[in-house]
Structures are given as structure tokens and as C-alpha cells.
Design brief:
This protein is an alpha+beta fold. It has one domain: Glutamine Phosphoribosylpyrophosphate, subunit 1, domain 1 (4-Layer Sandwich). Helix content is about 35%, strand content about 20%. The protein has eleven helices and 13 strands. The strands form two sheets. It has an eight-stranded mixed beta sheet. Strands 7-8-9-10-13 form a five-stranded mixed beta sheet, with helices on one face. Strand 5 and strand 6 form a beta hairpin. Helix 4 runs antiparallel to helix 5. The longest helix is centred in the N-terminal third of the chain and has 21 residues. It binds glycine. Glycine binds next to strand 8.
Length: about 350
């Protein structure tokens, strides 16, 4: 990210804050931020909106969706599994391994931005259609945290392993330790440190988690989410991506949701669980994602300084996405082909 781009972003952040205030009385679904801030009012309004939503006549399956442009090659890998009749769980694991291994994707896996101490630490989780889930946080020196998360799910009685315990478990499972800090990431970190930045860099430019959701030929849902987290985060910081309910949630009765953006905002609102529960009340995925973003914008001070985006897939194969600032896009692949779509956003202006 160039300095001029960053400065443009700072301007757009300030503008965004002003815009948020202006929007307070004008939100179409919630009747304004004050209405959105009330859980009861918001959820009643959600149910009302759902009543007029036509139900899809046929299930769209198999299908895979994921966050950001790096979701395109990830979806292509997942699609190979789905098109061959494989499970959604296998598809999402294979899919997100693509950006995990790609050093050009700076916010996921190998080559991701390190923490403030210069160490790359990874967060990931995976969930299937039966509420089985596995997660790792603060995992070092293992290229594919999503596969470790799956091993936690399938080979332990636990849901989540962190730090040294996660690494010890991964090695015991045969995962190979390797250096995840590429020369590019090291140089960027050195520049960041030399500039004397006391604070970790958590802003609009380092939020590109991959979250992936799939519906297989059997009609089963699964999801995966994996990231290197916020650039130059405080060592030990955990974002939303490994937290079931915050960065990912799957409920076979309803649908699935995943998130990207500043994890603290999704944690405070248990954002993906919120999206799924809004879908359970009858909202379609698009409406549910919008309502969750509105909730964040209304309830969390300074939310406009960050980006958040939700992506949801219903058990019928309906897709929806919504974000706070423009610039978030999502990839979809099914039998009709692959697409990349800009998500609708709450605040005016687009961050690139
Ligand atoms: N959404 C990724 C993170 O905040 O770590």
C-alpha cells in the first residue's frame, strides 16, 4: 500500500465518520442507526422484512463462495472437490489452502504480515453441517492452519488449541515446521518498525481474511476461515477468524456466514452467529449481512474507522454479502461458472 493510498484512506475514514452520522436517520432497513442500536427493534424489523422475501424455488447446489479476489483461485480448488461429488468440508479445506500457500496473499498463511515482534502467527477455523468445529489461534511455523484446525476437530475432544499447544499438536500430527516470514514481509515489517510505529496497524488495508462457505451435492454446508490477522498486531492478539460465531458459523437448518475485516468488531457482536440467526428469523443472506453491518455501525463507537464485511450462504444456495465501506468483493462458483462481485456497502465511497 502506497503512502498516497494510505492518506486517501485516512481522508476517506474521516469522511466515513461524518457520513455515518449523516446516515443515522436514513438507513433503509433499520429506520436509522438509533433503531438499529436496539436489538429488539432491529430484529422485529428484520422479521417484518423477511415476510416479503420470496423463497427460492430450487436449491442451488453445489456452490462455493469466498471473500475477496483471492477467493477466485480458492473457489476453483474447492469446486474441483464439489464437482466430483465431494463434501463441502473437504471443499472448503482444499479451497482455503490455496491462499494459505500463496506468498502474494499478504493477509493469509505463508507470506502474511507478521505481528509486532516480526513473527507470523496464524488463526483459522473450520465447521461442518453437524456443528462439528475445530480451531487454532496464534499458530506459528505451520503453513496450513486450516488443516490443523480440521485435525483438532476430528482428532481431539476439543474445539480450539492456541499457541505452543497448537504447534505441539500440529507437529504430533505430522505437520512440518517451516519459516512463514518471506523476505517481502520481513522488509515491510522492518520499515514499519523503523518508522517508530508504536501501535499495531489495524486499519482498512489489512483485513483480507479468506472466509469460504460451501454447499455440496448432498445439501450439506461447511465453512472455513483463515488469516494471519491484523498486520503488526500485538503478540498474542487473536482476531475473529478462529472464533466460532465471530468469524464463521454454520447451521444446517439455516445457512452459514463468514466475515472479513477488523476482527474485534465481529467478536464484540458475535457477527457470523448474528447473521445466521437473522437468517433463521427469515431474512435472506443479503438482508442478514446488511443488518449485522448496521448493528456494528450503530453500536460500536469508531466502527467507521475499520472495514467489516459479511458473506452468507443459505441452505438453499442463496448468496448475500454486505460491508461497511466499499471495496469488499466476494467470489462465487457453481455449475454456471465463476464470478467476482462488489458487495453493497453502508457508507459512501470505495476503499481500494
Ligand atoms: N478478520 C481478521 C482479523 O481481524 O484478524
Amino acid at each position: 500500500m502506497t503512502k498516497s493510498k494510505m492518506s486517501q484512506q485516512h481522508k476517506s475514514l474521516l469522511q466515513g465518520r461524518r457520513d455515518l452520522l449523516k446516515l443515522a436517520a436514513a438507513l433503509p432497513l433499520a429506520g436509522g442507526l438509533s433503531a438499529c442500536a436496539s436489538t429488539t427493534a432491529s430484529d422485529k424489523s428484520a422479521t417484518a422484512a423477511a415476510t416479503s422475501t420470496p423463497k427460492p424455488s430450487a436449491v442451488r447446489k453445489p456452490i462455493v463462495v469466498s471473500t475477496w479476489e483471492h477467493g477466485m483461485p480458492a473457489n476453483a480448488a474447492a469446486w474441483q472437490v464439489l464437482a466430483a461429488g465431494g463434501s463441502a468440508l473437504d471443499a472448503v479445506e482444499q479451497g482455503v489452502r490455496v491462499p494459505e500457500a500463496d506468498p502474494a496473499v499478504r493477509t493469509v498463511g505463508y507470506g502474511g504480515y507478521p505481528d509486532a515482534s516480526g513473527e507470523v502467527t496464524l488463526d483459522a477455523c473450520i465447521m461442518d453441517h453437524q456443528l462439528n468445529c475445530g480451531s487454532v489461534a496464534g499458530l506459528k511455523r505451520i503453513k496450513h492452519p486450516i488443516s490443523v484446525a480440521r485435525a483438532v476437530m476430528e482428532k481431539t475432544p476439543h474445539v480450539m488449541l492456541v499457541g505452543e499447544g497448537a504447534l505441539t499438536f500440529a507437529k504430533a500430527q505430522g505437520f512440518v515446521e517451516e519459516n512463514l516470514l518471506t523476505e517481502q514481509s520481513k522488509q515491510d515489517w522492518l520499515v514499519w518498525r523503523e518508522q517508530g510505529k508504536a501501535k499495531s496497524q489495524i486499519n482498512l488495508e489489512n483485513h483480507d481474511t479468506i472466509g469460504m462457505l460451501a454447499l455440496d451435492s448432498d445439501g450439506h454446508l461447511a465453512g472455513a476461515c483463515t488469516t494471519s490477522g491484523a498486520a503488526y498486531k500485538l503478540p498474542g492478539r487473536v482476531g475473529d477468524s478462529p472464533l466460532i460465531g465471530a468469524g464463521l458459523y454454520v447451521d444446517q437448518d439455516v445457512g452459514a456466514a463468514t466475515a472479513t475485516g477488523l476482527g474485534e468488531l465481529m467478536i464484540k457482536t458475535v457477527g457470523c452467529h448474528l447473521v445466521v440467526e437473522l437468517m433463521r428469523q427469515g431474512l435472506n443472506p443479503q438482508q442478514a449481512c446488511q443488518r449485522a453491518v448496521e448493528r456494528i455501525a450503530a453500536k460500536i463507537p469508531n466502527a467507521a474507522e475499520a472495514q467489516v464485511g459479511f458473506l452468507a450462504l443459505s441452505v438453499s444456495g442463496e448468496v448475500g454479502a454486505y460491508c461497511l465501506h466499499g471495496g469488499f468483493n466476494y467470489a462465487v462458483q457453481d455449475a454456471s461458472g465463476a464470478t467476482l462481485t462488489d458487495a453493497i456497502h453502508l457508507l459512501p465511497g470505495v476503499v481500494v
